[in-house]
Design goal:
By secondary structure, this protein is of the alpha+beta class. It contains seven helices and 14 strands.
Length: 301
Amino acid sequence: MVRRWKTGIAVATLLAITAMRPAGADDPKTVRFIPYADLSVLDPHWTAGIVTRNFAYMVYDTLFAYDHDFKPQPQMVATWRESADRLSWDFTLRDGLKWHDGTPVRAADCVASLKRWGQRNGAYGQSFIATVQTMEATDDKNFRVTLKKPFPVLDTLATLSTPTPFMLPERLANTDPYQQLKEVVGSGPFKFVDAEFEPGHRAVFVKNLDYVPRKEAPDWGAGAKIVKVDRVEWTYIPDATTAVQALIAGEMDRWEYASVDLLPLLAKNPEIEVQPIFPIGNTGALRFNQLQPPFNNAKMR
């Protein structure tokens, strides 16, 4: 990602590369961000698209999250207990959790969310659901998962694999998993401004004043999500040249996944920092089309 120096934000997008304006720039309480792709799907369980996952981390929250060592840490959960035979798991939600409509987060919301997510995530969710014997709320703050056999429950709840297990209000989580949600109500550090959403162009988020961060220090996906700005504007700019000019001109503050060929130009600007923030990196693969010449010839391959 590429960024201009600005007063900053503790929660933005995970797993990106960034650019930031010096402190004291115009409107320091607004971050103007260029995502790598158009935000076309708002249902956090619907797609494996990373841009939707990043959007959901702004608006929603998870029961657990990975720290920088890829160890699952509690997020919405306060305490949990695993039985000696590893077949029964009890979870207690932390205090202060509210949905953006003002209603409290309940254990029943989380159970319904996990059931819906489990049908959409083929990597972990479906295996998790197949292993569950029962999953039910025991009261408003507690729920229990009973398994048929031991399963890596905490890693599953903390997974970054898309779709990610974001929590929804029960009334939305009960939506058919094969129908997209028509409403955005999360419990995360930002609220989505539906009235300002322009598909293919812009998405707007405002600070959730009711959000209660965890007490731990921020650590990758885990720890406190401390919001230091009032507003975040995502503007999708598909043309790389236009995006870099908007960044240089100060019209934008951050650019996700800057084009490699433009990095030298950005690095020369003293107000711009080019910073890799995904330590593992990405792996690409190139596969020959063996049905088309010349690669239908084994010697050519």
